[in-house]
Amino acid sequence: MIKVCNLSGGYGSQRIIKNISFSVEKGEFLGILGPNGSGKTTLLNTMAGTLPAAEGSVHLAGKPVARYKPKELAQIMAVLPQKTSQTFTFTVKETVSFGRYPFQKGLFRQMDEKDEAIVQEVMEQTGVALFAQKSIRDLSGGEQQRVYLAQALAQQPDVLLLDEPTNFLDMSYQKELLDLVKRLTREKGLAAVGIFHDVNAASLYCDWLLFMKKGTAGQKRKPEHAMTERQIKTVYDTEVNTLVHHESPKPFIAIKPEQPVLKRPEIIPFASLLKSERDCLLLQTETPLRVLSASGIGSGFSWSRTFIQKQMPAHTKEELAALLTAEGFTLQETCAMASADKPGQPICRTFEDGDLSVCISVSSHFTIWMFINGYLSDEAFVRAVMTAGEARGKALGAGEQAADGGVLIAASQENGLASKTAGEERLMQLIRFGANECVKEAVNRLK
User: What sequence ranges are listed for the domain ABC transporter (predicted)?
Assistant: First the structure.
């Protein structure tokens, strides 16, 4: 639909963008990312024809953009700029109606029924119909942004260019705007190109990503291939972590804050914090712990302060969550498991090896909790769960009753404790030995 070939340009003799090439087809949403001053807006303005290309070309529907008459171009391409001045006072409806100007004919260019219907439809799509008669100057920045999106959509374009479209919008309106653009690409075949500062929004909504830096651009790539820690660090010169989104295979990026240098890492007394109360085991800490749980609420990686094993014969996750909520626990900070039997008084032992400290608790139904004073990588968390599970299986032996419990690993993530590969190898040995000893003791208690 739109094709950029070896495009260079800028302002006067200054070259802001250099030798950029890519294409966007119908039904695609391309996100352009990069630090401030990398040339993103210059690229968008050159694509829109508001800046002339010094070298290369931009083709729209097979024809150079420079050869379109302004009115003809406006019937195919719409632009949502980063900022729009409010020189004149118009109502919201009048402002949106300007989007129909390229299609109006005759001396007086009156709106007909079709124009009115389109204006009403896009105002409702963007959530501005309720204040159609208000002056646009009386609206907030976020409301104005939605009005100008409605104006762009009133053109019923084949190509939509968006310069930081979520500026000034709160979270709910950001989602609504991006949902709408994505839906139009899918249902109407719209080709959309947007500049983003929010790398995660771009990853979730865009089909393709293009990174820019110092006026140059790489190849457009799928988000799952483009959004890597190495790529983000190279483009933005900052440290980040790549996370897994719960509902999308697309990567999720989190900035990595500078870690304070602690003279002495905090040692949490896990053994003294573990309580056996009525029909549950409970451990609560003031410090959030990073957790990898094999079953129950909070399965997978999470951060928790409260850990519960609770007796509950019918123990779906939903039922357990409802019960804990009723009892005043905050599920976002709680990792819980349920059992048909009372957890009983657990075996609880602390194992140490130099600077390493592991508190291991094994309940009567062989659920293993491990609390570690130290730092674990993702790989070490997984190894710890597997190591604990293998040790439990070995300790139970072939003739013993199968255990129905799970495995939970929680670590303080204090740097300076078990943070190197050698420390992790020592930690695995400590986990293997401690889990084996505690499960054996739990088995002997039942005999």
Answer: 2-239
Q: What long-range pairs does 397-402 form, CB within 8 A, spacing at least 24?
A: 397/443, 400/443
227, 195, 20, 27: CA torsion to nearest 10: 80
202 within 8 A of 14, measured Cβ to Cβ: no
Q: Which of 189, 133, 109, 112 is nearest to 156 (CA)?
A: 189
Q: Report phi then psi at 260, rounded to 5.
A: -65, 145
Length of the chain equals 447
Is residue 28 within 8 A of residue 208, CB to CB? The reply is yes
Task: Give 86's DSSP letter.
Answer: -
Q: Kindly state the percentage of the chain with pLDDT values over 90.
A: 36
Q: Which amino acid is at 372?
A: I
State the pLDDT at residue 415: 64
pLDDT at 326: 80
Whether 34 shows a pLDDT value over 60: the answer reads yes
Q: Helices 171-188 and 113-126 meet at what angle, rounded to 10?
A: 130
Q: Helix, strand or coil for residue 284?
A: strand
Which helix (H) or strand (E) covers residue 313, if one does?
none
* Residue pair 8/24 in contact by the 8 Å Cβ criterion: no
Distance CA 132, CA 82 (A): 22
Tell me how crowded residue 56 is: count the other CB atoms within 10 A of its CB.
17
Which 8-state DSSP code applies to residue 67? G
Spell out the domains of the chain, with CATH numbers in brackets.
Answer: 2-235 (3.40.50.300), 270-446 (3.60.70.12)
Residue 403's pLDDT is 47
* Residue 272 CB burial class (10 angstroms; 0-12, 13-18, ≥19): exposed
Residue pLDDT, tens place only, 49-107: 999 999 999 999 889 998 998 888 988 999 988 766 665 688 999 999 998 888 877 55
Torsion sign across C-alpha atoms 397, 401, 406, 409? negative
- How many degrees, rounded to 5, is the angle at CA 421 between CA 245 and CA 425? 105
User: Chain centroid to CA 356: how far?
Assistant: 34
